[in-house]
């Protein structure tokens, strides 16, 4: 089969590799119909991530189940599915407590741990927790967004909004997902800030950032500022309902401080994954605010423990528990899928994967999908 192999920074090749087979009872083999290139894959491509090379890339995919192991119960041969970026066994302590991002058997697809999905076929360990039946009304190329980027953006936004009181329930939307309104016996001094008055800043308007922006907007956040240096991304953020601020043109700090009366943003979602972005998030945040970071960081923290203490920040970082939030994230995605109609900018055959990586790396593409 054809497969996309990384041999070193900037060195992506399409090569013929053996077709995968069942190795464990919980495995499945999927025939890939579409695979995405994720922003996190630019880290090894750019040489920013210490890793070995020679493996098949990819962790965003949809396809048809070809084989299942004897202990797989949730999918069968012929099912149309999409896969999650990391495996979840659903049996360990972490999985059974909704911390599927820290499954003790977790493997990140498309890394040195295990071959990925940018190929004609992919082996999927722990298939019951890693594969999901595809909704009939969503195209495969949109489903790849549910492998990682939409649940990650959703998770980042929901954590950012966790300390706010949700808007009043309506007949159409009875939920209180962004935070509870507090006990009726609570004093006014302890009541949560209403979400509709919140000022949230999203640093980074790549695809994950756009997913966070859309989530914050549809959940009822008052003002959602969107910060990036790429005009096309900012236009996408505007269409999602955000207020765009362009780095190098707009004085982001000044705007946020003016809108908030000098106290800073109530919450910041950081999806860039570098020190500068994390430092900016800290500086834009008000005391007692929420810093929700879903960017993939590999450097030291850009602020000290003392600075965090003195600002009383609520810091949330790390990989999204995609399997744990999948049901609610998928519902939001299905209800708002029209907003992502033009997010995919390039559709390429698998054999043109080197071009896809180049376009994505140089920010000439919003989202690239590959078809075997």
TrEMBL record:
The keyword Zinc applies. Keywords: Metal-binding, Oxidoreductase, Zinc. One of its GO terms (molecular function) is oxidoreductase activity. It holds the Pfam family ADH_zinc_N. Gene3D superfamilies: Medium-chain alcohol dehydrogenases, catalytic domain, NAD(P)-binding Rossmann-like Domain. Its cofactor is Zn(2+). InterPro entries: ADH-like_C, ADH-like_N, ADH_Zn_CS, ER, GroES-like_sf, NAD(P)-bd_dom_sf. Residues 166-190 are annotated as: Disordered. Residues 8-370 form the Enoyl reductase (ER) domain. Belongs to the zinc-containing alcohol dehydrogenase family. This is Zinc-dependent alcohol dehydrogenase.
């Amino acid at each position: 089969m054809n497969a996309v192999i990384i041999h070193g920074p900037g060195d992506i090749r399409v090569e013929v590799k053996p077709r995968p087979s069942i190795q464990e009872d919980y495995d499945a083999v999927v025939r890939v119909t579409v695979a995405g290139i994720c922003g996190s894959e630019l880290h090894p491509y750019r040489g920013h991530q210490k890793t070995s090379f020679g493996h098949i890339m990819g962790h965003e995919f949809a396809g048809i189940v070809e084989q299942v192991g004897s202990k797989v119960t949730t999918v069968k041969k012929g099912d149309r599915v999409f896969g999650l970026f990391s495996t979840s066994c659903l049996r360990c302590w972490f999985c059974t407590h909704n911390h599927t991002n820290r499954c003790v058997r977790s493997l990140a697809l498309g890394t040195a741990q295990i071959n990925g999905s940018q190929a004609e076929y992919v082996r999927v360990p722990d298939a019951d927790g890693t594969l999901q039946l595809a909704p009939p009304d969503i195209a495969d190329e949109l489903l790849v967004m549910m492998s990682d980027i939409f649940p990650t953006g959703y998770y980042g936004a929901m954590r950012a909004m966790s300390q706010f009181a949700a808007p009043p329930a309506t007949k159409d939307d009875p939920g209180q997902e962004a935070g509870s309104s507090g006990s009726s016996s609570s004093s006014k001094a302890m009541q949560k800030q209403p979400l509709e008055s919140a000022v949230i800043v999203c640093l980074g308007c790549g695809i994950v950032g756009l997913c966070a922006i859309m989530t914050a907007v549809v959940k009822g956040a008052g003002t959602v500022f969107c910060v990036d240096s790429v005009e096309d991304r900012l236009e996408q953020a505007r269409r999602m309902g955000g207020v765009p601020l362009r780095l190098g043109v707009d004085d982001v700090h000044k705007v946020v401080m003016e809108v908030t009366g000098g106290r800073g943003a109530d919450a910041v979602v950081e999806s860039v994954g570098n020190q500068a972005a994390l430092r900016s998030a800290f500086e834009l945040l008000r005391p007692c605010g929420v810093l929700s970071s879903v960017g993939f960081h590999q450097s030291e923290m850009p602020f000290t423990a003392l600075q965090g203490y003195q600002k009383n920040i609520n810091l949330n970082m790390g990989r999204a528990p995609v399997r744990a939030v999948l049901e609610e994230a998928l519902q939001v995605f299905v209800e708002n899928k029209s907003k992502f109609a033009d997010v995919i900018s390039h559709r390429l055959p698998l054999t043109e994967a080197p071009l896809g990586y180049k376009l994505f790396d140089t920010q000439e593409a919003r989202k690239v999908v590959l078809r075997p």
